[in-house]
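ESCALATION

Customer reports they have been waiting on this structure for their group meeting. Please prioritize. Original submission:
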Amino acid sequence: MTHLKVGCIQLNAGSDLARNLEAATQAVRNAASQGAQLIALPEYCVLLDGSGRVMREGSPDEAQHPALPAFSALARETRAWLLLGSLTVRASDDRMANRSYLVSSNGDIVARYDKIHMFDCTLPNGKVIRESSGYQPGDEAVVAATPWGPLGMSVCYDLRFPQLYRALAQAGAVMLAVPSSFQRETGPAHWHALLRARAIENAAWVIAPAMCGDHANGRSTYGHSLIIDPWGKIVAELEDQPGVLVADIDLQQAAKVRGMLPALQHDRPFSLRCDPTV
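Update from on-call: job pushed to the front of the queue and completed.
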């Protein structure tokens, strides 16, 4: 099966987990009613608050997280595969893990990925974000098997590290998932360019569901969920409001582009010499 319908869910989550979960559930049902077989939700899909305290208090151990059984039941109900962009769960050192889940249509968790790269930054408006103070970074890249083809998993800030996506593509991924809560300040300049670059570099489909709007305690996100083909063409996009997009994709297109531009076959090891005068 190389043809499938992909759904991207764009949400405006806040600090009320139950309300966020209900909004996500209705959006997934909407996508499934349009025939989506693989439905992707954004980063922080059931809880997003600018307060680290609120995020920690809303992040139980994985075994106690109320969203996981709810989404498993939803996958069984809709007969769709669900990519949970991320849930925050308590990690071993009392920080949180920003963890993405792939749930099969049987409701089974078939893959987990902990966001590797931490966003520690001072934004142009002076706002300071230090993800590493609250989150434990992952250390393992993940390519998950789906009925349609291998899916490379990532989360938001990972997008700025092309070596991760190269490794995923070299391991066989023909779809790259980039669920995000991209900052509104950087989104207009970087979001589309980086996502198209990852698609072009790796001749892979990019599926990028995004968070949008204003959130509690000073967070604001860019939206513009995207599905991009292996040639770098945007085939579907939302704007800056919550919504659902569904697009037909053909995974054979990845093989076609890789045949025309076989860059993945041309990677070579090399050494690096730094001229002392540089």
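Sent to customer with the following note: Residues 17-33 form the longest helix (17 residues).
Escalation resolved.
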